[in-house]
């Protein structure tokens, strides 16, 4: 089955032959994972998203049939009899529970177990228990497969104990979970974005264990930015420009600058970009500026014609799963588990 590489457009999805497979996405933000499933031939029926701005953008691009502007906690309060039947016959339930409390940046453990005002959803909420609420969605809807994406920080330090709780919750819900650490750079994305993927199959299905082995040719920044538009790129501040000058292309600002510059990178032409974050976008290899929206979109493997409305493309991309990354996972599930 075809693995999408290089520039593409949302309009290309119209040429995909229907497979009859369905998916539903929680915490879908800008729709990165949704586009990945669509590229793999799935019909994405809609999703659950708490952020009104992200939902408005998602609806403008994807026209979902079943769309819920609310938190997953509230979605779980809806009487099961009121849930549309197609959502109770899903092939895949997808979700990317907000993960900033598990990021290795900052004093993350101090944030566990308490509510904080995070940008996700523009509301104050606990983020460390959203994974459990997501698994509860799966327990209620009983899809064949549940896929959850999160930061690699879940595999480090005290967060490993939380992973054990996640596995126990999956099993209690009637699923066999597997955990993978994947890197988007080996999945056709011009970005080195390591992420954990929990892939769980329903216990009554004889699926066995799935293999997720990806080792595709790396896509360099030079290849990715071919034909992009530098319009809209913001110049660096004098202080940031000084650090940019002292940073070798392909390195992080923190190698030569003191302070909180570890999310700042001067890109190198001959390699994929590092992880795109929702705050500071990567900086250009040859010019003291951030990447333009057109360039950031390519690095994230978003389609060139995506309508961001009035949202910052860098924020949306930083908060989303690269579509090509999800496509590879979805195709593996399709080929190994759902082909019949």
Report the portion of residues in β strands. Answer: 15-25%
Shape field = globular
Q: Main β-sheet, in a few words?
A: 7 strands, mixed
Question: What order do the strands of the largest sheet run in, or round the barrel if closed?
Answer: 3-2-1-4-7-10-8
TL;DR of this structure?
The protein has 10 helices and 11 strands. 26% of the residues lie in helices and 16% in strands.
Describe the structure in your own words.
- With about 350 residues, this protein is of the alpha/beta class.
- It is built from ten helices and eleven strands.
- The protein has helices at about 30-40, 50-60, 70-75, 130-140, 160-170, 220-225, 240-245, 295-300, 315-320, 325-335; strands at about 20-25, 45-50, 65-70, 90-95, 115, 125, 145-150, 175-185, 190, 195-200, 275.
- The strands form three sheets. The chain has a seven-stranded mixed beta sheet with strand order 3-2-1-4-7-10-8, sandwiched between helices. It has a two-stranded antiparallel sheet with strand order 5-6.
- Helix 2 links the parallel strand 2 (about 45-50) and strand 3.
- Helix 1 (about 30-40) crosses helix 10 (about 325-335).
- The longest helix has 14 residues, at about 160-170.
- The radius of gyration is 20 Å and the shape is globular.
